[in-house]
Amino acid sequence: MTGLQTIAGGMRRWRFWTFLAWQDIKQRYRGSVIGPFWTVGHLALTIAGIGFLYSGLMNISQDGYFPFLAAGLLFWFLISSTVVDATNAFPQAGSILRQSSVPPIIFPLRIVVRNLIVFGHNMFVFVVVAVIFGTTPDPLPLLFTFPLLLVNLAWLSILVALMSARYRDLGQLISQLMGFFLFVTPIFWVPSAVSGFRSAYVLYNPFAHFLEIVRAPLMGEAPAGISIAVCSALAVIGWAVAVFALIRHQRKVVFWI
Amino acid sequence: MISPDSKTADASSDAVVRVRNLTVELPIYSAESRSFKQSLLSTEIGGRLLSMRHGPLRVRALTQLDLDLRPGERLGVMGHNGAGKTTLLRALAGVYPPTQGSVEVDGDVATMFDIGLGMDIEANGRENIFLLGYSRGLDPAHIRSKIDEIATFSGLGPYLELPVKTYSSGMASRLAFAVATSFQPDILLMDEWISTGDQDFMKKAEARLFELLEQSRVMVFASHSAELIERTCTRFMILSHGQIALQGPVSELQDAIQRTRATLEQSGEAAQ
Predict the structure, then answer these.
(1) Where is the ABC transporter domain (chain B) (predicted)?
(2) What's the CA gap between B196 and B169, in Å, rounded?
(3) CB neighbour list of residue A7: distance below 8 Å, 6 or more residues apart
């Protein structure tokens, strides 16, 4: 089997990676009364705590700020926990990888699905906020932009998983970087508030574009064209790099874990 | 129903497993070479390419090994710890890529290496049947159709609803064996531990192995037990330092072991 066939074979075995993802979620429910609803509570608390404080600090109306914050954090949890979980994708699968010949791409994809399921739980918080503050989302663009986000998360997960398996310290570094990006990405602050050189924080930050394409429709706005363009370009480039990296390194993953 | 033993690789066209000139080197990523910081620092300070000077330590586990297995053949692999038995099994399973040479395996491979390997001990028995089945590339309908059979054969029955971490090692190995054999693999690779079940289960397991092998399937079994190999295999191979020291039909195994012992004793004396 060529490297490309191994990758395609792994993608076709979607039942396997979705099964693993559901097992992960079941695991969180085991021995816990509310399981993944812990992240729901975390999200709700963050929105409530930050919402009242920052809307005052930045002098914006709460009606607009709360849905913005809720939508931003909802997607940020999805992006950031996918990246952080991906750092452990291969070590976590060690017992499977050492037992049988399994296409390694299965494990980063499992991470994406796992976090998608958690995202489903977290949606609940946004719905509550949207109802309270009377926001009407425009779901139609999401039919395109949400899959586009997931496609980007998939290549990101693959690359992070490979790099973190090979270099253990890199996993730590990446986890910490996500904490950094939480603050430099427009999640707590609105993108329109920055100007001059500070607009680089929005323009040259891929996470800002990832957020924009899915957050805007939830706010009932059209996503910025530039963000859709950037995300589409990143999807193509990212997948090209991820496939190249897999072809070169996927057989060595078993030695790294 | 014993298939003719074949020592040499003459007509390899009908072989299910074809190994040619197989060398496997295992890179050992030590703590230093694995750390990103270290490689960053060493490139900065040393200014040398990592691959030239700081590449991982490599251990040659198998050297230029050839092997053909035809339908119905059962190969027992013996050798000291570190002789390359497990590496050979993992190379046959496609877990370890060949450094040189080639491994061709036609058909569905089932592996039983360490107890619990490939299982999730937090998940219950039923979920682990799916996990092991999916790892082999089986579809869910096929897996579901065999659950009752696995429950009966393994004798686990209602215990399949309990987490595997509550199982004894014998129960876990019975589950792994039942899963590995219920889906009728073309090639069955086993590492030692089949002997961990109780006596009754051992008899059942052996009966099932022979049943499988009557359907022209291939088994490779690594073990320290000559007695077990004589009973279950048609051929034997003794590995030493990653190379084939001796091989032949099992009828010659006792003879071979005597000779190996003699050689070892001689080399032992020579060392003194």
Answers:
(1) 47-266
(2) 8
(3) A103, A105, A243, A246, A247, A250
| Residue indicated by tokens 């990101």 | A156
Residue of A nearest to B117 (CA): A95
pLDDT, position B29: 79
> pLDDT at residue B12 above 60?
no
B214-245 tens-digit pLDDT: 777 899 999 888 888 888 889 999 999 899 98
Let me know: does A142 contact A203? Beta carbons within 8 Å.
no
Chain A residues in contact with B140 by the CB 8 A cut-off are 15, 19
Residues of A with CB under 8 A from a CB of B: 13, 15-16, 19-20, 23, 26-27, 30, 95-102, 166-170, 173, 251-252, 254-256
- Band of pLDDT at residue B125, cut at 50, 70 and 90: very high
Predicted pLDDT at B271: 44
pLDDT per residue over B21-47, tens digit each? 999 998 887 655 555 555 655 554 443
* Measured distance CA(B60)–CA(B76) in Å, rounded: 22
Among chain B residues, the shortest Cα distance to A168 is held by B35
Q: Phi-psi region for residue B43, left (φ > 0), alpha (ψ -120 to 50) or beta?
A: alpha
Q: Which residue has the higher pLDDT, B253 or A247?
A: A247
What confidence tens digit (pLDDT) does each residue in B144-167 have? 999 999 999 988 999 999 999 999
**Mutation test of the interface with chain B: which of A2, A18, A90, A100, choosing the one with the most B Cβ atoms within 10 A?**
A100
Kindly identify which residue of chain A lies nearest to residue B113, measuring between CA atoms. Answer: A99
* Residue from B32, B119, B135 whose CB has the most chain A CBs within 10 Å, to mutate: B135
Q: Where are the domains of chain A?
A: 3-256
Distance, CA of A238 to CA of A248 (rounded, Å): 15
Between strands B187-191 and B218-222, the pairing is: parallel
Q: Are A123 and A77 in contact (CB under 8 A)?
A: no
Three-state DSSP class for residue B23? strand
The partner residues of B125 in beta bridges, in order of sequence, read none
Class of domain B14-107+186-202+216-272: alpha beta
ipTM: 0.89
pLDDT of res. B34: 55
The full set of domain ranges for chain B reads: 14-107+186-202+216-272, 109-185
Q: Are A162 and A249 in contact (CB under 8 A)?
A: yes
**Is A99's CB within 8 Å of B95's CB?**
yes
Segment B123-152 mean pLDDT: 94
CB A43 within 8 A of CB A136: no
Low-confidence ranges of chain A (pLDDT < 50): none
The phi and psi torsions of A222 (rounded to 5 degrees) equal -85, 135
